Structures
1.
Amino acid sequence: MSEAMSRPSRILAEIRSARRRVEKKIRETSIIIVLLGAGGRGLRQRRVLKSRLASMGMVALIPEDDFPGEVAPSLVEEALLSKGDVELVFINVESWGTATEFTQFHGNRRIAPKLRVLVEHVHHPLYGGSASYLTDVYMTHLAVFGHVYAVGGSRGNVFPTVREVVVKLAERYRVCKALGFIR
């Protein structure tokens, strides 16, 4: 009888040990994320988000703070986002500048798969009613890469906030990387 009792105990101990190894691997796995968006209030929000991601063990970069200022942003951003080290690029399209960045990066085969495009739900190609050229490009990006997310402007909205989307997706990506689902 004692042998039968020890077998379940050993199995449980092995499961607990495996769980600790997985949790440790996830904690030790880091990803590099770039946060793109508008200046002003948008920049302040990205800085708060950068701090949140850092507290979760991720490296978040904001071009205005972390990229060389003496080089033209349109050149340095494309060069750095094309690097293999950068794994996710969240772009909150909330101004003409970020719309321009999105269309530039959407056409770059090294950057486009990394893009996680955040758009107000009214401009989302599936949920909104906009028939603009930009919404059409969102639809193409969604069809090809599958990463266009509708966001709401405030709490209480049916759609999640930018922060909620970025934190959830970044954390899941990190877990998938730690567990070997992403190379």
2.
Amino acid sequence: MVRFTKINNTEVPVSFGNATLIRFEEETGISILTLGQETLNYKNTLKLIYEALRDGHRKEGKSFDWTFEDMCDEFDEDMAAINRVMELFSNSMPDAEKKTKTSRTKAHQTQVKV
């Protein structure tokens, strides 16, 4: 799914789909399944955003000619955009806590029935 946000008052497409996540893993060697505070440091956050911008443009059929450094320069002028993009990332992930609670509840129900 492509979502849109603004960077320096320009609306840009962003996608955190499979292509983005695979390219991030290939680029960094970090599995998306193991992301956490230690692995998703500032540099890796920007790398994830870069891949999401690339994929968003691809899905929208738009050219994307920014280098990684160009993107960093854009964020120098609009640091709040980093948070806006990462909020899109957070909203695109399944609710793992909700699934865990559901699984625990089902396991507990099974134990009670036995």
3.
Amino acid sequence: MRRVVRIGSAAAVAGMLIGVVGLIGASTAGATPDDWWFGQSKVMIRGAAASESPDGGYGLGIYARNNGAPEDGWGQIRFGGADAAEGGHGDAGEVHCLTRDAHGLIQVSGRVFASGGRNDAAREFAVTIDTESRPQRFSGVRLGAPGTIAPCSGGTAEFHPVTRGGYESSPPPGK
């Protein structure tokens, strides 16, 4: 019985080592760290930022990409007001659409899967993130019933300047 356990354990360790060597040896020739992290994405964005102003505090974190059409976007997003940590409102959502418009604005939409402070779960969301401006900025989040927000339509017209954190994104076309 001990021999079977030793052989099984040795096989498991060998399999893990081969898997790790395979990952390490995966070809990254000519790839940037972003290519390795995000693959050959058409549009990608990652980061978290907060905006603190006299009008209030807001936060938005995102990790998302698309590898083809905007509707092939995937990833996750978190957003909320400054009071989210103190029992206020905060949501988490799944990205279903991600695109960058002609002005370099990244537009994201999807569905909320978790909500704290109010019942937004299963609602749709849309937001716009401007990674090219200095300071960076993000829009207010638009929420709606399922089927009421067009894919990649963007957030509200109100933008919040980033005062902490920031975003990395794929460069806009032509840059």
